[in-house]
Amino acid sequence: xxxxxxxxxxxxxxxxxxxxxxxxxxxxxxxxxxxxxxxxxxxxxxxxxxxxxxxxxxxxxxxxxxxxxxxxxxxxxxxxxxxxxxxxxxxxxxxxxxxxxxxxxxxxxxxxxxxxxxxxxxxxxxxxxxxxxxxxxxxxxxxxxxxxxxxxxxxxxxxxxxxxxxxxxxxxxxxxxxxxxxxxxxxxxxxxxxxxxxxxxxxxxxxxxxxxxxxxxxxxxxxxxxxxxxxxxxxxxxxxxxxxxxxxxxxxxxxxxxxxxxxxxxxxxxxxxxxxxxxxxxxxxxxxxxxxxxx
Length: 295
Prior knowledge:
The protein is mainly alpha-helical. The protein has helices spanning 2-35, 47-74, 77-82, 86-117, 119-125, 131-152, 172-206, 213-233, 235-242, 246-250, 253-277. The radius of gyration is 21 Å and the shape is globular. The relative contact order is 0.15. The chain crosses the membrane at residues 12-37, 49-74, 86-108, 128-152, 159-179, 185-202, 222-240, 246-269.
């Protein structure tokens, strides 16, 4: 039984590393196409989304490093007996970045939903809030998350000997906070994008209104994020809530789901941006027409 569980953890870890590496390649190619080669044109309405791209690159590279270190060190069982706190320093940055990413996704979903329901007011007042201010809010939340861990929950880095997963080395106070936070934020994102989908459905099917291409494209990216959240981000915390020992049996299952979600998300996003924003140098530039969506 123990050998089977150990083999399962190795498979989950190997798959996580593969998915994480693949997602980095896809996103690096996409970022180079947008910011370096200019084969995909930049769109002002996607300014928040571009920060989402950059942030995901950081998250994925951190995960890659974490998984690589984990794979190397797990081969030497004595290492975690001599350095039990090492697991905390390896896994903690990934969970922190994951929480920050969840907040950024929520802000993007809120941004798209408000733009859809209140387009005139949105385009009038949204420019008063710089994108960098929103990014700063996400960074400040990261500081707050650390404060919750060490300040409110009073965490002391003292991982039990033999523990190779961060959740067995952190007090239940923060574990409960993490589970509640992730489930709440992702549930809010799903709710916002459900409102967004409903509004778009009403426009298309019931009111037969013509929606601006810019709004369609930005909203499509938000809906892709929602699909990924439901199946790959919200599921792991729910599983952990009901099966607390799942990490012991399956290893880095949370990372596995997230990295798989990254691959699916980035393939869909790359395809969408390539279709809608690809620069065609051979085509002549025609008049730019915009459709104003009235509230």
